[in-house]
Design brief:
Hypothetical Oxidoreductase Yiak, Chain: A, domain 1; 10 helices; alpha+beta; 3-stranded antiparallel β-sheet; Ribosomal Protein S8, Chain: A, domain 1; about 15% strand; 7-stranded mixed β-sheet
């Protein structure tokens, strides 16, 4: 009996090579060098930490939007309204990574002065995983919080059928002394839509419980995602949380919310007017920074070392698994599915740039 040849495994690419390729692609598409490098750095960081639904997988869609004229390559990102501890940015339809990097810089400056700061943005765009921006507070010994309106509606109000809400993510980053920072990054839906896209890219089925169809039945094929919608975390509580995040990151900023949200997966020309917000809290405003970080580390150790249920090998803290993936990817390279590699080769051919170098490497080992 003939033996079937197993499908090829994912190739691997070194992070520096991936960053360079993404930057070269954006420069070829018309983005200024420094901006291209900034966006590429954040997209590579997304893949490094295991947020593969928001990393290089987004390169082709971003370029498609740029080519269609749906994004401003030279935005005038500016402050519209400002007080001592707050600011509202107009992103001028620039790439979300650039808008929110600017927002994070402003928030850190204001929090150092006032103890706390809140910076909102409108006329932004998709910016990758929420944790990237919450983490920007950590080098300043600050706590970072990030909120955003998702770039397409995938969630109806509880009990409804019309998709008027999105995944609307939340991220919080808390510094610690001897432990990995505590970093929570979560959608208000059971899964972020980027994970659905990643499953489709790899030809994998979704776990039951991510999506249902319009008859309320489980939907597992990510290529049929348009036939259903994502489920909120915690039932009606997740629906309520998505609504509140949208009000804070969207409506408060004069950004799109509800029926105003543009599905950037399907509409590549309309301005999305994406809303986001970042807040930072200066730990020094509440006392000794070192003491706070020690207390966080002690709490982390107490939680990890607490009694476990039978069969549970380890209690994880938010951010630990992303840190482990980052360590493994720096060592072994970042895995790229064959279908994604083919897409990136097509990007290189279209732009006339050198393709991404990619070699077969070891399977990931987060240990």
């Amino acid at each position: 009996m003939a033996h079937e040849t197993p499908p090829p495994g994912p190739g691997r690419v070194q992070p520096d090579a991936l960053l360079d390729f993404i930057a070269r692609a954006f420069v070829a598409a018309g983005l200024p060098d420094a901006d291209a490098r900034r966006v590429a750095t954040l997209m590579t960081e997304a893949d490094l930490q295991g947020s593969d639904g928001h990393g290089v997988i987004r390169l082709a869609p971003y370029l498609k939007r740029i080519k269609a004229g749906g994004m401003n390559l030279r935005p005038n990102i500016r402050v519209l309204h400002e007080r001592a501890a707050t600011a509202l940015l107009d992103g001028d339809n620039g790439m979300g990574h650039l808008v929110m990097s600017r927002a994070a810089d402003i928030a850190a400056q204001k929090a150092r002065l006032c103890g706390i700061a809140w910076v909102g943005a409108r006329l932004s765009n998709h910016a990758g995983p929420a944790s990237l921006y919450a983490r920007m507070a950590l080098p300043h010994d600050m706590i970072g919080l990030y909120f955003a309106v998702g770039n397409a509606n995938h969630l109806p109000p509880w009990g409804g059928l019309e998709m008027l809400l999105s995944t609307n993510p939340i991220a919080v980053a808390v510094p610690s002394a001897d432990e990995v920072p505590v970093v929570l990054d979560m959608a208000t839906t059971v899964a972020a839509y980027g994970k659905v896209k990643a499953k489709a890219q790899r030809g994998e089925l979704m776990p039951e419980g991510w999506m249902i169809d319009r008859q309320g039945q489980p939907l597992r094929d990510p290529k049929r995602a348009d036939e259903g919608f994502l489920l909120p975390i915690g039932g009606y509580k997740g629906y309520g949380l998505s609504l509140i995040v949208g009000l804070l990151a969207g409506t408060l900023n004069g950004a799109a919310m509800g029926r105003e949200v543009i599905d950037f997966n399907k509409d590549h020309t309309s301005t999305t007017n994406t809303g986001q917000a970042i807040a930072m809290i200066d730990v020094a405003a509440f006392g000794d920074v070192a003491g706070f970080k020690r207390r966080v580390s002690t709490l982390v150790q107490d939680l990890r070392g607490s009694d476990r249920m039978p069969g549970v090998e380890r209690i994880w803290l938010p951010g630990e698994q992303s840190h482990a993936k980052r360590t493994a990817h720096l060592r072994d390279g970042i895995a790229l599915a064959p279908s994604l590699r083919a897409t990136l080769d097509g990007v290189a051919a279209d732009l006339g740039i050198t393709p991404l170098p990619c070699t077969r490497g070891p399977e990931p080992n987060p240990a």
